[in-house]
Amino acid sequence: EQERKRLLPLIQKEMSDKRFNHVLRVEEMAIQLAKVHDVSPVQASLAALIHDYAKERPDEEMIHYIKTHGLDQSLISFGNPIWHGILGACLAKEELSVTDPMVLQAVRLHTTGAKEMTDLDQVIYVADYVELGRQFEGVEEARELAFKDLKQAVAYETKHTLLYLIQKEVSIYPKTLETYNQWVVKK
Ligand code: DGI
Ligand code: FE
Ligand code: FE
Ligand code: FE
Question: Who lines ligand 1 at CB under 6 A?
Answer without folding.
Answer: 52, 55, 81-82, 85, 110-112, 128, 161, 165, 170-173, 176
